[in-house]
From TrEMBL:
It is a lipid-anchor; GPI-anchor. Residues 33-473 form the Sema domain. The lineage of its organism: Eukaryota, Metazoa, Chordata, Craniata, Vertebrata. This is Semaphorin-7A. Its main location: membrane. GO terms for biological process: axon extension; axon guidance; inflammatory response; integrin-mediated signaling pathway; neural crest cell migration; olfactory lobe development; positive regulation of axon extension; positive regulation of cell migration.
Amino acid sequence: AGPCPSGATRVPLSQPLELVGRVGVLPVQGPASMFLPIASPSGRAGQDWVDFGLAEPHTVLFHEPGSSSVWVGGRGKVYFFDFPEGKNASMRTVNIGSTKGSCLDKRDCENYITLLERKGEGLHICGTNARRPSCWSLVNGTVESLGEKRGYAPFSPDENSLVLFDGDEVYSTIRKQEFNGKIPRFRRIQGEIELYTSDTVMQNPQFIKATIVHQDQAYDDKIYYFFREDNPDKNPEAPLNVSRVAQLCRGDQGGESSLSVSKWNTFLKAMLVCSDVTTNKNFNRLQDVFLLPDPNGQWRDTRVYGVFSNPWNYSAVCVYSLGDIDKVFRTSSLKGYHSSLPNPRPGKCLPDRQPIPTETFQVADSHPEVAQRVEPMGPLKTPLFHSKYHYQKVVVHRMQASHGETFHVLYLTTDRGTIHKVVESGERERSLAFNIMEIQPFHHPAAIQAMSLDAERRKLYVSSQWEVSQVPLDLCEVYGGGCHGCLMARDPYCGWDQGRCVSIYSSQGPVLQSINPAEPHKECPNPKPDRAPLQKVSLARNSRYYLSCPMESRHATYSWRHEENVEQSCEPGHQSPNCILFIENLTARQYGHYHCEAQEGSYLREAQHWELLPDDGAMAEHLLGRARALAASLWLGAL
Ligand SMILES: *[C@@H]1O[C@H](CO)[C@@H](O)[C@H](O)[C@H]1NC(C)=O
Ligand SMILES: *[C@@H]1O[C@H](CO)[C@@H](O)[C@H](O)[C@H]1NC(C)=O
Ligand SMILES: *[C@@H]1O[C@H](CO)[C@@H](O)[C@H](O)[C@H]1NC(C)=O
Ligand SMILES: *[C@@H]1O[C@H](CO)[C@@H](O)[C@H](O)[C@H]1NC(C)=O
Ligand SMILES: *[C@@H]1O[C@H](CO)[C@@H](O)[C@H](O)[C@H]1NC(C)=O
């Protein structure tokens, strides 16, 4: 950044808070002033967020698709939120309390709720309970203690904890002993015989996600889990951590020898690769995984979305198929094992509860990694996209636009407490991803702790340490610029109908949507886009000003034109969300008309139109229109 013109100090540093008190949405790189009020202009009634009334440093969120409610576990209590359609949201709390254990400090003595799960008619609740992990059941508003339950909740809320329920079976990565057994394991803690992973098969794992996959034959059902671990390759060039997928047979009964008896006998792991070979960019750190089942119920076609980051905290999304993962485990040789494989081969599930022969166990246990790596789908085996944002969590919604085309829409949380909506379109051969919107879900901007998607009701539920918010997926009223702006947004949930940009779900009849991703606006009834309304301001000579134009489209170049001269031009990817024209010292010839124009291919739209009029009065310094909402950081970023 160059020297700061003295005018920069005129930006109202003390009031960038137009954001506070609003739930809003803005197109990515859009302006702060685009924030919507709580009750949105479309007439959606009701408040879409509720705050806890105090800080909840650790939250866990439980939502059942199809319901309008969300349960959130906090400190010593469970919150119940309801977001009825068209009404204000409401909150109730249920106290869980905690027993006084052998805790050391105040934080330690709390009962952090870390697990919420449906159990029959009630809710199964587990928490740290002052370092005595315990569970409760909540049925009909009554809390009943289930006593100390090791493995269901960790001793402290920061511990890596993953618990997977499947009918009567429960799997967990939580250690059962407080001081012994520090090596993390993946266990079956309820259901069939209790099993755990050998201590040598993973190095310092950080578990991300686990899932059960029902395959063609019940005896072949698998548990897959995703994790990061220290890279066994200590070459200084090699990354410190690697990302993995592991498999286990759900029907694993443990082995026959004393070494294999309570261990998983079907463990194998593979490396998950997410790198762009053409640019040599590697993304090694898995952050989150989302599984999108195939609509026709073919388990092999389940899409596995992985969010990865690199050491600079840039991100990439890679998409894998469960079929590819399964094939790698079924067919690959084992890394570092050069003899012929025993029969049955390591990792194979056996029917009729047959035990795995000790020889097979020994080979797998000493060579747990398969040689072949799991690569992304598509002929190029590259990421779907990469980005300079540091994404943390992902959910994916499969939806059909009004003309029947299917889109996968990704919702990614950023480390700034916002959500990016990314539309994946195009053929499997060459997928394209457009980042079309940034959503600010909270009243108080804060980091997103949890996110849950309800594909049926088309809502996202997100929690921060302060509040819980419901966000509709079909936010269409944010797109300005008439029919052209609506279609150029390329938002598959939105279309043009009766003079408004509307949700395809809210309209009775068909809405206008484009099937031409290059020039969607060509389908609008009006051949020319609407012109921006003229805004006038009177300004004194020899003063400093700036004109700010929100860059609502990710794809357009914005320029400020004064009469016939382009005075400022901002390309897509511009570092500030606004295209700003500075006027250092207003001279007589600088009065007149200023147009901000957005150009994308053959499409040109006027976004702003200002007339600067001479004023010899006392208005020496003046900040114009929407620019008021610019936070200081945006201002400095633009210099
Ligand atoms: C919702 O809450 C707002 C502000 O608290 C209030 O003005 C409004 O009347 C409420 N609406 C309903 C439907 O209760
Ligand atoms: C919960 O309460 C309802 C109505 O009060 C009752 O019909 C139901 O049997 C109760 N369920 C349990 C599990 O107690
Ligand atoms: C990555 O590797 C470093 C160095 O071995 C280790 O300290 C860190 O915990 C690892 N992070 C993971 C597994 O996410
Ligand atoms: C990346 O993000 C993590 C936390 O999310 C932070 O601790 C770390 O310092 C960041 N690294 C860089 C290079 O910015
Ligand atoms: C603007 O220009 C005028 C005349 O050219 C000059 O007198 C004045 O000092 C300038 N103002 C600033 C702030 O540079």
